[in-house]
Amino acid sequence: MDFKNFQRDVKCFIGLKDAEMFVNNFEKLLQTRNGFYFAYELDEGRNLCRVFWADAESKREYHAFGDCVSFDPTYGTNKYCMVFTPFTGVDNHKKSITFGCPLLSNEDEESFKWTFGKFLEAMGKKEPQFIITDQDPAIKNAVPAVFKTARHRFCMWHIMCKVADKVGTAIGKETDFLSKLNEIVWDSDLEPAEFEYKWCQVVGDHGLRENSWLTYMFDIREKWIPAYFRDLPMGNILRTTQRSESENSFFKKFQNQFGTLVEFWMRYETAMDQQRHTFKRLEMESENSVPQPITLSPIERHAISLYTHEVFLEFQEEMKSSMCTCGMVGYTKTSEYEVTEIEDASRKKTFQVRHIVGCDEVECNCKLFERRWIICRHIIWVLSNKHFRNIPDKYIMPRWTKDAIRKPIYDIDGKLLDDYDVTDLKKLEMSKIWSEIYATVGVIARKEVGDMKNLASILKHFRESLEPTTETTSKGKEL
Fold first, then answer.
1. Which of 93, 281, 313, 425 has the most CB atoms around it within 10 Å of its CB?
2. Under 8 Å CB-to-CB from 69, ≥6 apart: which residues?
3. Phi, psi angles (nearest 5°) of residue 349
4. What percent of the chain is predicted at pLDDT more than 70?
5. Contact, 377 vs 326, CB < 8 A?
6. How many CB atoms lie within 10 A of CB 302?
7. Is 78 within 8 Å of 261 (Cβ atoms)?
8. Per-residue confidence at 252, pLDDT binned at 50, 70, 90?
9. What does the alpha-carbon distance between residue 122 and residue 41 come to, in Å, rounded to a whole number?
């Protein structure tokens, strides 16, 4: 059979029942995949206008990595002009990960409210700490209407992609304006006053003080410039150019202005298989291989045991800089805390590390830990010189560790945690208990028989301590 004719006949058949086949596919997945979530709506003409879905794996990943979420409505998908608007985040390998997937025929405020509502419903009402979007007015209104606690910020990458068009091709491409603007916009070491001074200087030097777009972007600077949220953990959400371009390329695989919904689903499934295969490969590599240390520091070896390769390499850069570019230039001590002034030659700045006397609490005014959840070179310098052997527990963020995604766990009813929305605190705590029991049994199975007997005895005594006595039970019956 001629392949082109076969393809034409298949498309013709699909075209007649495309939306129906698309929805029926999801209805079957609800029956066959544990924890699958799906919702849709039809417009007044009985046409498919809104769809949202998330599977159990996406939900599990969201509970591990959903602190910072990006929502990007820029991907056209099919001949019906529906827009694919994925919810994404960053996993423990610093790769983009997909949490939930809407398809929308209208990009209006009501459609976005519906989408955000379904996302929260699928994720057990758990809100992210931060949500990042573009500047679409409908999205700006919909976010606070649905997300009550999440902080809303604008995507720097999308904004910076517009600069050349907004200031004119000649200025944008033929001068050093773009490079200078990028330098100050992405500089997370700047304090707000420093940023404002440098922005005005760059804009003024290139004769752009009257540019209305730049004026507006400066007016809303607290919504997108890192200088205004240096102490917020948004290192996972503020996109680098490389990651944004990679994510853009990944989702463009779904774009086909002449394609059907069924074709879109097939492309989506293939792409998600690829994304998840990459994640599992990186998980195996982090679990089964060891990065090369560059020092004899026990702190570095502790980091090797904790972090995935990608996160450890970032930590290692800080470790290397702590040795090569940092040195103490001042020290003060009170009864409550010690302050060490660290000169950082690579940044040509001096930073202050404060250590609370008598405990493991440290903080640095460079704010790297607050932004990216790994300790900075200045803190590493102080900890190393105080002969710490480990990174204090308070500064180990589970989302960056090798076991950020735990093995399947069960609730009190014997269900997989992924099978339902986690809203019952009692069930959540029971799932943690079961996980600890399974983990302990796994360890004890490799020990001596005596250890097993000890565990059995401990569990028995603890259970008996929780059970009512015979006397109490009898009295209860008499009453």
1. 93
2. 87, 88, 89, 99, 128, 130, 131, 132, 150, 237
3. -140, 160
4. 79
5. yes
6. 15
7. yes
8. low
9. 16
d(CA 77, CA 253): 9
Chain position carrying tokens 């109490």: 472
Amino acid at position 8, single letter: R
**pLDDT by residue (tens digit) across 56-73?**
999 999 999 999 999 987
Prediction pTM value: 0.78
> Are the C-beta atoms of residues 150 and 128 closer than 8 Å to each other?
yes
Check: CB of residue 401 under 8 Å from CB of residue 286. no
Could you give the CA distance from residue 225 to residue 188 in angstroms, rounded to a whole number?
8
How open is the CA angle 144-195-203, to the nearest 5 degrees?
100
At 456-471, the pLDDT tens digits run: 888 888 888 887 654 4
The pLDDT confidence band at residue 145, using thresholds 50, 70 and 90, is very high
**For residue 442, how many other CB atoms are within 10 A of its CB?**
9
Looking up tokens 């903080």 gives 363
Q: Alpha helix (H) ranges present in 168-235?
A: 169-174, 177-185, 192-205, 212-219
Three-state SS letters, 286-352: HHHCCCCCCCCCHHHHHHHHHECHHHHHHHHHHHHHHHHCEEEEEEEECCCEEEEEEEECCCCEEEE
Q: Give the separation between CA 301 and CA 290, rounded to whole angstroms.
A: 10
At 273, which helix (H) or strand (E)?
Answer: helix 261-288
- Are residues 108 and 212 in contact, defined by beta-carbon separation less than 8 angstroms? no
Q: Check: CB of residue 370 under 8 Å from CB of residue 238.
A: no
Amino acid identity, position 159:
I
